[in-house]
Amino acid sequence: MTVANTHVFDVTQGTFETDVIKASLETPILVDFWAEWCGPCKSLGPLLEKLAGEYNGSFRLAKVDVEAEQELAGIFGVRSIPTVVLIKDGQIADGFAGALPESQLREFLSRHVQPSSRLEGVPEEATSEPETATETPDQALARIQQEMAAAPDKPELKLDLAQALIHTGQYAAAEAELANLPANLATDDRAKRLQGQLELARSLEQAPDETALRQRIDLKPDDWEARELLGVRLVLGHDPGAGLEQFLAILKEARDWNDGQARKRLLAAFQILDDAALVGRYRRQMSSLLF
């Protein structure tokens, strides 16, 4: 695939070390694993290329044709396409599988890079815009509902709506949306992740807050219920690695507690987390404890 955008380039196993790993020490590289026959790739690819141009060098987009580069795809454990991996400072920093809508792609990128303040060929003063505040969960929900009303023929917005409902704590409504997805979306990787998020979120409906859970653990380190709930809060919140540590602590000391709940929580967390490196590290630790 030949691309004209100067921020988008094709990469092979032979050029990967120089063009991606070493280059990422200076500029984050987003790696798009795709194939010509892949329908979702055809919707995701142009969006990624558009954003690479818009970000104007804040990141570069490397395209990997998995048909031509099967070994390279295997090295990254690519099981489905499209799969996107962010390489930063020579390491995997984040990633996701499936064709996300533009709003979620922007949210993903915002966690790691910021758009250049200047577009190519346009004076800097012409591109300056006032800063906009980050959306609250309620604002995101309202926006998505408006988008659905304006474009009722876009069923993929149902996934955006389900996620927004989860973020606002409307679990029953989110469950209903996921239960009524069209057949082609119901088996989508993102739908499966949302189902996992919903299952974990519902376990917190009557749970104490993070501070109270930490106080319980300080008083009684083998309060496995508190550790489990704290792990879920952290996985869904600001520190998924610390959440996985809580599940591992239970698995190490009380493997059979609550019918193997810690193992179940780890597997559920692996399904919803986009950080491939983090998941791989904790999957190995889980296996070493179980086998």
Summarize the structure.
By secondary structure, the protein is α/β, with parallel strands linked by helices.
User: What is the average per-residue confidence, as pLDDT, rounded to a whole number?
Assistant: 85
- What CATH first level of the largest domain would be assigned? Alpha Beta
Order of helices and strands: EHEHEHEEHHHHHHHHHHHH
- Principal-axis shape equals globular
Q: CATH homologous superfamily of the largest domain?
A: Glutaredoxin
What's the alpha carbon Rg, rounded to whole Å? 21 Å
Helix content: 55-70%
Characterise this structure.
- With 291 residues, this protein is α/β, with parallel strands linked by helices.
- It is 56% helix and 10% strand.
- The chain folds into 3 domains: 8-113, Glutaredoxin, CATH 3.40.30.10; 137-202, Tetratricopeptide repeat domain (Serine Threonine Protein Phosphatase 5, Tetratricopeptide repeat), CATH 1.25.40; 210-290, Serine Threonine Protein Phosphatase 5, Tetratricopeptide repeat.
- Strands 1-3-2-4-5 form a 5-stranded mixed beta sheet, with helices on both faces.
- β2, α2 (39-55) and β3 form a beta-alpha-beta unit.
- The longest helix is centred in the first third of the chain and has 17 residues, at 39-55.
